[in-house]
Amino acid sequence: MIEVDEILLQIEVEPAGLELLARAEELLDRPLTPHEVGDVFLRAMSTWVARLEKTLQAAIPKARPRCLRRDSARGIPGAVRLAVWERDDGQCTFVGTTGDRCIARRLLEIDRLKAIPSGNGTKLESFRLLCRTHFVYEARRLRAAQEGADTDP
Prior knowledge:
The chain is mainly α. 48% of the residues lie in helices and 7% in strands. It has 2 domains: 15-59; 66-151. It contains 5 helices and 2 strands, in the order H-H-H-H-E-E-H. The radius of gyration is 25 Å and the shape is elongated.
């Protein structure tokens, strides 16, 4: 990911693209400034990305994350599942020992932060999104902690 405000970009342009730039200069009756060429690039990329997004969304018309598709995923209401997804930005919320958040956005599971007595388990704060790997990791960690507590005198 580029983290600067501006970069100098060198690109190869096909003859047709050069002809279009020359035609723009002709219409303006002056050469294009580097800033104007950057604006042209930005507009072209914006249009292209919007078209890609539209194409991909059309290819998968009603694609929803797997954890949102189930009607009764462990008794979690659909509105709560959707709110968790939006709050967590569709990304695993696991934070490692280095303080970095997991970047996974696929194969996500909704994890209940703690066991809730029946009837009270639909508060948004009680849930988080975890990728499958961290979901299993947390389950094993919790089970090991519980087994360790059971064996203490």
